[in-house]
Amino acid sequence: MAGVNRKISASSARAHTRKAKQNSSFSFSSGMLRKVSVVLLMGLLAWAYQSIQPPPPKICGSPNGLPVTSPRIKLRDGRHLAYKEHGVPKEKAKYMIVYVHGFASCRHETLLLSPEVVEELGIYLVSFDRAGYGESDPNLKRTLRSTASDIEDLADQLELGPKFYVIGNSMGGQVVWTCLKYIPDRLAGAALIAPVINYWWPGFPANLSREGYNRQPVADQWAVRVAHYAPWLTYWWNTQKWFPSSSVIAHNPELFSPQDRELFRQLMGRRHYEAQVRQQGDFVSLHLDMIIGFGKWEFDPMDLENPFPNNEGSVHLWHGYQDWVVPVTLQSYIAQKLPWIHYHELPGVGHLVPVADGFSDAIVKALLLGEQ
Prior knowledge:
The protein is of the alpha/beta class and 372 residues long. The protein is built from 12 helices and 8 strands. The chain has a single domain, classed as Alpha/Beta hydrolase fold, catalytic domain (Rossmann fold, 3-Layer(aba) Sandwich), CATH 3.40.50. It has an 8-stranded mixed β-sheet, with helices on both faces. Helix 3 (144-157) packs across helix 4. The N and C termini lie far apart (121 Å). 38% of the residues are buried.
């Protein structure tokens, strides 16, 4: 009996040893699996972080950077701003105008004024590259206020006087709202041409802004939604290949009305400078434009007060009825909320108002002379 007990005991010991080895092996495998999972997760997070980080900009004038071919001023924060002068010489000018270009554009694009109007009225006009565009230094701390401050610095360094006119087109028209907010005392008058709308401005009725938002192509609905709610993802969203990104950035002609497409041939001249527009990087030009333009604003344009209560100047808003890029319904609502704005709704005209025949002249005559 004792022998049987010894055999059972030895068998039990062997079974216990095998189980211990199995448990040890299982414990070792589980530990390794956890470690591998952690390493993979860390690698995935590192890859995700890198993929949403924009590359450093190619700053003009920096060592081994892009060349500077235009005159520039040095701003109060040390950045450089490139500009281009048009019209009559400053010393002979009667009217000083600062022109603000739109999205995916630069200082070379401005109003198509006739030489007769320029000479007759004595117009000096300066256009400039907004931060990150063309040859102007990027501003990674860009805010709603910063471009208005850049305009003020430009006017002071070019000695345009205590007051000047400002005209902005499309995204540049949106910048004019910030000038009316932050530097109204420097303005002799202002014109907004088809200014871009932020669908999250609180002054809009929810149903109206939703209707305008839904008129965009689905790709653009997502692009502006990302810029508004997750600005840190804007670079990744517009460079990834899994989902359609902004059709505006992609220059999709279907975004424009038939009236605009008929005018495209007049834009062929931009080919000689098109490479300059985004040369410092898409993030510091296009993507920051989207983040600022469609982000959370610290003021609502519909709450602005008349900067010219004594009619010492005027503000004009021009918008094409056939504009497929910016909904005319939202623009007309703003005009109703701000009755001090001279609103010009243009039948048969799309988003490219300055390119349409005669409208550049009409815009400056209305602004400078009060002609309707």
